[in-house]
Amino acid sequence: MQVFRVVGTERRLGATHNVEERPRIEGNLPEVWQDAVSVIGGLMRQPSRLVGNRFQAVSEYPRFSWQEALLNAIAHRDYSVQGYGIEVWLFDDRMEVVSPCGLLPELNLQELLSRKRLHCSRNQGEGIPRMFAEMEDALLPAPRIEPTARNVSVVLGNTTTLTEADRSFVERLASEELSQEEFRALLQAHRNLQVDNASLRQLMGLDTLAASQVLRRLRDRSMLELHGAGSQSYYTLGPALLAGDRPDQGKLALDRGVTEHVTAHVAEHVTEQVLQLLRACRGEQSRAELMDAVGLTHREHFREAYLVPALAMDYLEMTIPDKPKSSRQKYRLTPAGHTFLNTFPTEQP
Q1: What is the pTM of this model?
Q2: Domain check: are 176 and 234 in the same one?
Q3: Domain C-terminal end among 157, 173, 205
């Protein structure tokens, strides 16, 4: 194994050479693993990151995530490949672990990105769901898995997904005693104007009862307000938090539709991809039809950047919600989605 520290975000040659190469790591697999963890761990920076609702100095990558990427590279590389070994590149903005092998024949990229627990002859893929979850919990970008015929790269980014509006909101919560689940529920309500049981389950990996308990505790503390009942219920930020969130907007309308009072707030969080998807939606359409409408062919990218955010914000809904994986599943705009498009400028979000 070879470990490289790159000063910057791109490798440069010649007079601007910016790569620091560490001594080659060799030996049996346990020795390589121990030495690699020691070397790479020693190169990790300690930025101030959000832990719960407070900022603390932590490793720039969650320990399990980078060690899982490293362990997979050591345990699952193709040792029939000679001439080059595992490479670990530490850039200012990302970590790349490159293993000399392709994906196993019985696996494909879509299966790995589905985050399902997989078991194959080289055990490839079992830790990947947790690696994704750890990065998401740390408010970091999802890992990228980039296979070629010659190698497989796992790329971990270290740039937080928090916006300036998020940071301002978090600062107002600094004096509150919150569990990780409670904090993420409040952040979800801040980012998307509302949070419900389904979105919190997906975000934190909770079951229905646990998600309900989190939301009710926040309601009892007046940090969230409940609207609707049963499967149609959802929560918005409580008046005190909401007033601090948008002091110039007055009281948020409590109906589920998006009104002119919240359009400016929504504009901070609706991505260009979501807006593009909403504008492309015509009646009831399948995922394939929606992908074609926005000009995409990569299913996972479409799901993560377009479809899931639109569903989470309640601007898009399934025609068969009780069977999300149905082959006959289609999607359509919700009333809130129609109202949003009618009140939102036609330019950029």
Answers
A1: 0.57
A2: yes
A3: 157
